[in-house]
Amino acid sequence: MDKNKKLIEVKNLKKYFNIGNGNILKAVDNISFHIFEGETLGLVGESGCGKSTAGRTMIRLYDATDGEVYFDGKDVHKMNKVQQKEFTKSAQMIFQDPYASLNPRMTVGDIIGEGIDIHNIMSGNDRMNRIYHLLETVGLNKEHASRFPHEFSGGQRQRIGVARALAIEPKFIVCDEPISALDVSIQAQVVNLLINLQRDMGLTYLFIAHDLSMVKHISDRVAVMYLGTIVELAPSAELYKNPLHPYTQALLSAIPIPDPEVEKSRKRILLEGDVPSPINPPPGCRFKGRCRYAKDVCHQEMPELREVSPGHFAACHII
Fold first, then answer.
1. In a domain, 235, yes or no
2. pTM, entire model
């Protein structure tokens, strides 16, 4: 594993949806970033900002409207069927809802083994031993293989989802809010499981979430999305210590601090106004209507994501 190698490169990626009556929803609108091999990139932002759509488009669950996604130097959206099948072995997804993402009519063993069967990796006893090993890897028992999803709790179901993603030994996993549907007491267990698996298997993650404290715990770098665009990108410690974009500052001010004295003395940044519609985003900076620093230039020109300090990027006219 080469931590200086770019496993994923996203260049000017766009994903638009035609929602009828001539309306186009710009879910992801011209984003660019990369993820190094063995790294976790956190992707945060409000609900509806395009995080999940970006993750799904990166692994071709959605076709891109424009732009490129390179995996190991190959453009994901220009692969033929043979290359696409090989790519699906290397890139998997852990879904947000552990209740909806598992087929209720299949046993846990068949759910985990489905990818093994599709790619003809192994069969018979080897297949079952692989499934048992995966169940034990994620903290479950091999006896669970013959049970059905409804017999498990939310945390256990998400572990089954993790085992399914690992079954065909991928290099890259999109974790699409994998803890948001779980109890707080279970969330840390699943995140720690993902961290341990990454260490043991050399996995690369895109970790999508809106829980900023959990993202800080698991991510090497963090990208902040707002209305389909990336407004800030920096190493995790740097972003939390020195947020530059007004939107990032407001997001971080909402994280509760478990110290009543510190919590009492610090000032929350309350955003006024509503998020504009992704169907008809305004000209200029998309955050300008809620920004306390907005100037004339913010109403006219879309700010570019530029490197403000080494490794720290922000899209803002006032920085």
1. no
2. 0.91
